[in-house]
Amino acid sequence: MSAPRLVVHRDKELMAEAAAARLITAVVDAQAVRGTASVVLTGGRNGNGLLAALGTAPARDAVDWSRLDLWWGDERFLPEGDPERNVTQAREALLDRVPLDPARVHAMPASDGPHGDDADAAAAAYAAELAAAAGPDGVGGVPAFDVLMLGVGPDTHVASLFPELAAVRETERTVVGVHGAPKPPPTRISLTLPAIRAAREVWLLAAGEDKAKAAALALAAGADEVRTPAAGARGTERTLWLMDTAAASELPRSAHPA
Ligand SMILES: O=C1O[C@H](COP(=O)(O)O)[C@@H](O)[C@H](O)[C@H]1O
Known about the structure:
By secondary structure, the chain is of the alpha/beta class. The protein has a single domain, classed as Rossmann fold (3-Layer(aba) Sandwich), CATH 3.40.50.1360. The protein contains seven helices and nine strands; from the N terminus they run βαβαββααβαββαβαβ. The strands form two sheets. It has a six-stranded parallel β-sheet with strand order 1-9-8-5-2-3. It has a three-stranded antiparallel β-sheet with strand order 4-7-6. Helix 2 links the parallel strand 2 and strand 3. Helix 1 packs across helix 2 (about 45-55) and helix 2 (about 45-55) runs parallel beside helix 3. The structure holds ligand LXAUTJHC. Ligand LXAUTJHC binds next to helix 2, strand 4 and strand 5. Pathway: Carbohydrate degradation; pentose phosphate pathway; D-ribulose 5-phosphate from D-glucose 6-phosphate (oxidative stage): step 2/3. Belongs to the glucosamine/galactosamine-6-phosphate isomerase family. 6-phosphogluconolactonase subfamily. Pfam families: Glucosamine_iso. Keywords: Hydrolase.
């Protein structure tokens, strides 16, 4: 697992634009090497800000959108089309305006889908979809994602792995139903830390004052992933914290990039 590296930008707009440019490069590189790319999207303000920035990025058309697999790190378990669903917000921010292959857009199930309101069954179905897509490079039942992005909650949650809940302690399954989340809605679906850690690159997005404490806790030496889930999110090749100065304002000096 890779150690976290920090990139701090002036403000959240610049952070979103720089992260979008970085994502374009990562996808184009992966497509050049492997013919295809796989990216895990995050919900939340920073994830949607990045997607919106990607939509207006000058190099956006360098991506071959038809050879891109999109997955989600978590989903709010709500009916299809609900404005609070992460996939609905991602479609609005970007996905409806780029020529993706619909078969490669792997949204997590909705609460009015084939599994009804059974979030555990829906999570198991998503795990099976991931396992079927895990190629020779896949580890532990998931593809070796090229880039997996995570928003960081003010309580240090990533995906829907909240401090101290059962989901963040999961060591076997790749996707779980989450019950009793402290942030609405209480029922969610989430990748687990083992699935997150199969990604080549993990990017944690943290912009805004309300992320400062969370970033400081997660980046402190010896941070525990059950109490501080963001501390457990690492990529096999690279772990990047993409931040703005407000989110980085409570980091110890030793954690700042030179
Ligand atoms: O509910 C969620 O929140 C987090 C963080 O969102 P933010 O708006 O505070 O940045 C997000 O990463 C996650 O995907 C989402 O379901």
